[in-house]
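Hello Y.,

Per our agreement to keep a running log of every chain we model this quarter, I'm adding this entry. I've kept the format consistent with earlier entries: sequence first, then predicted structure.
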Amino acid sequence: MEIAGISEKTRGAGWTDEEIVERVKSGDTALYEVIMRRHNQRLYRVARAILHNDDEAEDVMQTAYVHAYEHLHQFAARAPFCTWLTRIAVHEALARLRLRGRNQQLEDTGNEGDFPMKMVDTSPDPELSASRAELNQLLEQALLDLPLQYRAVVMLRDVEDLSTSETAAALDLTEENVKIRLHRGRAMMRSWLYARAGTEAKSAFPFMGARCDRVVHAVFARLSEPRNNDSQIQ
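Predicted structure for the entry above:
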């Protein structure tokens, strides 16, 4: 989308989320594209981590953006906008998980012993070391094989680089619980995997190009439809 020859991505590039939100609330609704493109990757990653399904992850993203847009007046800036937005996406993903009858227990069981986990072969592989694509696949599979209560925490902390407090706010957990789950999740993924993956974690779970455009266009299409704005975002 462009206005006066300047794309929205370019026009809002130097603004904070909060500045863009204020402009959107004042009527510059086209700038909402900047918010979506800025946070598509994060929302996709966390929704994908919870649901294990690309199509459902995209649906969650669209719904989260629509809900956030309809309730921008409720954003009080007590936490960063990205945290507020991520929490909406997390709640939507978990709701879908319950609806499809595959809800996994999010509370720790208290079992301090070994956790069952399907892992890929850890034997040295020169070809794997030379192939970034295969390495990313390995990292993604190892993370997605984690139980849900660890998977979302590891995704937000280690892949998205959220702080402990931001992760706790996004997932409605205590900071201590985040630390415990992160420690256990990392152990389950095995220390050598992260040592070999290194900076490649940043290029895992890509969400860009046509897929990014598809979500942006779909959200604007949904926002143009008549909707009931009486619901509340917590």
